[in-house]
Amino acid sequence: MYVLCIWESNGLTSIEQIDQVRLLWEKNNNADIDGYDIYRKQGNGGFTYIASTQELEYIDKAASKDEVNFYRVYPYKIINGKRVTGLSNTYVYGRSQ
Fold first, then answer.
1. pLDDT at position 1, please?
2. Which residues of 41-74 are buried (b: 16+ CB within 10 A; e: fewer)?
3. Against a cut of 0.70, is the pTM above it?
């Protein structure tokens, strides 16, 4: 059994920009992570998967201007060909300008 290190979002922030919301976070040097899954919630809906990245930032060009966009970033690790997702205890929010 493999347990992925519980990962704090390490400074997860959102920056509201023209026609997009930019998400930034810091690398956790104590965790062996292959990438990050980005989830977004708009308005009263639930969180849904929008993208994966191996970078320490993501730009959401589909962010709503009318409703608040909430974001969570989850780390993942590929183990024996299977994706194992870590935890995310933090969310941020923003609107496209």
1. 47
2. bbeeeebeeeeeeeeeebbbeebeeeeebbbbbb
3. yes
Q: How far is CA 92 from CA 23, 51, 70, 86, in A?
A: 9, 16, 6, 17
Express each pLDDT in 34-75 by its tens digit. 999 999 999 888 999 999 999 999 999 999 999 999 999 998
For residue 15, give the amino acid letter.
I
Q: What single string gives the DSSP state of each residue in the chain?
A: ---PPP---SS-EEEEETTEEEEE----TTS---EEEEEEEETTS--EEEEEESSSEEEETT--SSS-EEEEEEEEEEETTEEEE------EEE---
Residue 4 to residue 86: CA distance in whole angstroms:
6
